[in-house]
Amino acid sequence: MEGIFLSNQNQQKQFTGQELRDSEERFSIIFDKSPLPTSLFKFDDLRYTDVNTAWCDFYGFSREEAIGRTSVELKILDSETLERLWKIYLCGGVIKNVEVEVYTKHGEKKHALTSIETITFRKEKFAINMVVDITEQKKAVRNIAEHDNLEKQFIQAQKMEAVGRLAGGVAHDINNMLSLIQGYAELAMEKTSSYDPMREDLEMILDAGKRSAEITRQLLGFARKQNIAPKVLDLNEVVANALKMFRRLIGEDINLGWLPGEALWTVKIDPSQVDQILANLCVNARDAIDGVGKITIETSNVILDDAYCPAHEGSVPGEFVMLAVSDSGCGMEKEILDHCFEPFFTTKDVSKGTGLGLSTVYGIIKQNDGYIYAYSEPDRGTTFKIYLPYHAGEPEKVKAKTIPEKLVTGHGETLLLVEDELPLLELAKMMLARLNYNILTASNPYEAITLVQKYGKKIHLLITDIIMPEMNGHDLAERIRGIHPDIKCLFMSGYAESAVVHHQVLEGEIHFISKPFSYPELAAKVREALDEICN
Prior knowledge:
Blueprint: E1 5-6, H1 17-33, E2 38-42, E3 48-51, H2 53-59, H3 63-66, H4 79-92, E4 98-103, E5 109-121, E6 124-133, H5 135-190, H6 197-223, E7 231-233, H7 235-250, E8 254-259, E9 267-269, H8 271-288, E10 293-304, E11 318-327, H9 334-337, H10 357-367, E12 371-376, E13 382-389, E14 414-418, H11 422-434, E15 438-442, H12 445-454, E16 461-465, H13 473-481, E17 488-493, H14 498-502, E18 511-514, H15 519-534
Parallel strand pairs: 1-5, 8-10, 14-15, 14-16, 16-17, 17-18
Antiparallel strand pairs: 2-3, 2-6, 4-5, 5-6, 7-9, 10-11, 11-13, 12-13
Helix pairs in contact: 5-6, 5-11, 6-10, 7-8, 8-10, 12-13
């Protein structure tokens, strides 16, 4: 049965024999010529007694195949749908324009509006069923919905990209200012003793500078302009080494579970970015838990196929390593979940979050050609699943970054310092001069090239900003190497622009320092580059 039942309350008129035969003939003609798929079946056993030509065309069965069988036997309907329709009829006696899914002889699914009228003929109860094919209309509605969804995704991607460009530009300028604040505070601290009342004020300035630098680091992570040095890694090893730090982050009341996947494939990513991802997710999970709870970190090898990708925006089939962080916290409503990766979106108090944590994670994952998806329900916790592409190769050893407590000084070597921000140029010159180096300065690349051409003595090291007007630091280094082939370079940058990425500056055998840098960091990096020259 695939239709709607309408009880016929009209009183039966008495016909003569000829009138009855004429009526049956007219009904037969109208029945067969009806443009709507129409069937007639007995009311007691629901078996077809007749079907018209449109019905045969719609379902693909012949008249002989249909008569004497039910819609369930022909697999036009399933028994659950039939039972649903029957219950509707019994409850109200009327079922009109009910939408159902029906199947043809060859298994093709169609959508239909179905209607049934009950009639009594020669004291026997029948039902006449008509269906309206709405398959194309359903498809059109679905296409419109998909188009609207794609449009929303496109607008969202544009919005995220625009905010990313803004964040990157703002972070670049702020990093330059922070370099000045931290640098001059450090130089001033050198002039004060540990008992000087001014020292505590300077330490407060330095601490504020470091916290501000962390915010700009998050902005750059979201904008995908963070300076990175990708390495082939075993994620299990990186996570295991950082577990102690994560346990300190989440506190003693929360249990931290670690489920490493077996025979995990390698990925290529900056190890500091893995720490940044997990730190943000663990802090977010901690804040979602009220009191005692659990956070679980796990890894596994995953193959994304054609069935998975259409339902997960932006993903493509392939081999990936999955990194998941789950918590037993309060979970999120769908409305919050839909916005969780947007920058500055937060449900936390102003004092507890900037709204940059998850957007930073999102930016890092995209920067490494991966995907991240969030799964959450109120009061049932949250899971973030990250998919990083498999990268063949032997895992590289990750060296811990150490900065000497004592400033490493020079031996009178000559350094060429190129920086288009004049206050930064003066600050770095002052720092390096105090470290016993001979400093040449230029505020733009062409001034630097002219200086090198005229300078008759050996220049041991070029220290240059990467992003400058007219010429980037990489091209400047190549031009100067044409004059001094043995010169080494130390690159500086507040963020990774296309020139850095395209020329693989950060992945090659070069030296790099990220703005804002401290006085000890600059001293250590310069000495490291010069020692390489001497070897």
